[in-house]
Fold this protein.
Amino acid sequence: MIPGAPQQWPSTIREINDLPPQQKRAIYRTLIPEWVYLRFGIDPQDDTLGGQPAIVYRYPPGSSSVEISVYPAPDASEPAIYLHMGDTFNGQLMVLMVIVGDPDSPRFHIDVDQEGQDTQLGIRSRNIPEEIRAMQAGLAPGQTRRGLRLFRSALPVFEQFVSRMGHELFLIEPLFYHNAITFERYGFAYARGLQRMRWIHREFQPGGILHARLDGSTPFRHPEAWRSVSGRSWAIHDGVLGEPFTDVLMYKRVGVHAGITTFPDAIW
């Protein structure tokens, strides 16, 4: 029994959002792993840091989505951890975006272009100089900072949340190629896009269409980029597919590892 939460949890985000504030906050608070409080020094009694709210929930009544932001310092301008999830049209759970960044690491401004406009993490437009800096620092497309590498410990917490809502699985749409490979490693399967991922792997091999396009014409198309996950992801982000990386949808069954690998012996 979760203090403050109803004994029987609703099965949709929309239903949770329509609960009284104390109940829905108690439910969503279970998504925050214990290490978050320890890592950032957040007071677990009231979710504050230095007297300021450190964990911010956005879950208006009538909405079918929820956003949770964790700020690493009282004066932080952006969250270190961000989760956005919601209901699909048929009542399934879908993770729309998750970001876990190390606030102590250097920041790369790939999310705004040189005119200060939002790039949507490089999907709508690009800041090439910042992307080059990020790539040289070992980051992958869409990353403004190095990750905290804590996805493995957070996944069981999220699966428990999903189970309490009465679901057996949840969905996620990888924004980039490397996201899909990472999710494979943690047991996700493909609802859509498996054959596309296998085609990408095949065509990145010597003699393949994508391998031939790694011609060094841009910093993101280094001839050796096919050998690593991040190298491929940067090349794909740079347009080596000839089209955006879209139409890939994955799912994770609670307590089940799908065992799918589309890039055998992958290195980052």
